[in-house]
Amino acid sequence: MSRSRRSKIPAPRPPPSNFGYNQRDAIQSKDCPAANTFGMKTSYPILDPHAPETHRTRGRCALGVMIKAPRAGASKTRLVPPLTHEEAARLSVAFLRDTAANMADACAEDSDGEVHAVAVYTPAGAEDEFDKLLPPTFALLAQRGDTFGARLFNAASDLLRLGYESCCLIDSDSPTLPRALLTAALAELRRPGDRLVLGPADDGGYYLIGMKRARARLFEEIAWSTADVLAQTVERAREIKLDVGLLPAWYDVDDAQTLRRLCVELFDAPNSDDDADDACDARLAPYPAPHTRAELARLLEGEARARLLAEAAAREGHVA
After folding, report:
1. Which residue in 149, 174, 160, 158 sits closest to 251, CA to CA?
2. Which of 3, 65, 77, 146 is deepest in the core (most CB within 10 A)?
3. CATH class of the domain at 52-254
């Protein structure tokens, strides 16, 4: 996959008129009851892995996204600077809306309807902060654990304990993630036999991890937030003799450089040099991310544009 990584910040164009996720039939109570196990105020069912008999959520696969409540000072802090904490929080909301809509459509496209979307959230008690940010087909599952590795392992364990045959976990840092990559992961997990599915991120981590059994070793001795995460995870799988399926690479938006890349992807018109790449990558067409595009357009029309340009110029000067 070859895409432009120019440092210029393109001028925004108006967002498309089709601005929301596709409305799908909500999961009815027979599949995912709307009763709120913990009595918390939210329009989404909250799954309790310790009482799976209260939820008829069993299906072939759970497609989960690891999220946190979009709060200023706590969301997308690695984008500060060049963004302010308030701008980063608003962008976090847009990322979440687009990621969730993409997931909902991937689940709806599943032929047997046995792939369910779940938002694996933190902190506990913030359930109402996700209202109207997620499609109605979503359920909520609270994160558990003090470290990122522990939270990933516990999320997988809890989803499988609820009766799913397999689960995939993604982050909400890739709003343009091609839906084809989600469907490819689901197809890989549909194959017989135990396996691990990983979606490599360009920074050395992964944007997706899928499995049929939760194995603690996959999350142990991993240097999280480094360029070694993917390689170390593959090595852990080899230690326990677990087959690994690798998806095509994509990128997370977690710093100023990848934020510029996102701007180019969403706003820059393709040029002739890109046409051949686009033809080769047709199956990896980026998700259009309308909420992210609209929020970036607002940012680029304001003071954030100057800050992004200044940061890009400083980076180019440093590299030179």
Report:
1. 174
2. 65
3. alpha beta
- Could you read off the pLDDT of 19-53 as tens digits, one per residue? 333 323 333 333 333 334 444 577 899 999 988 66
pTM: 0.84
Where in the chain are the domains? 52-254
Closest CA to 299 of 67, 3, 10, 8: 10
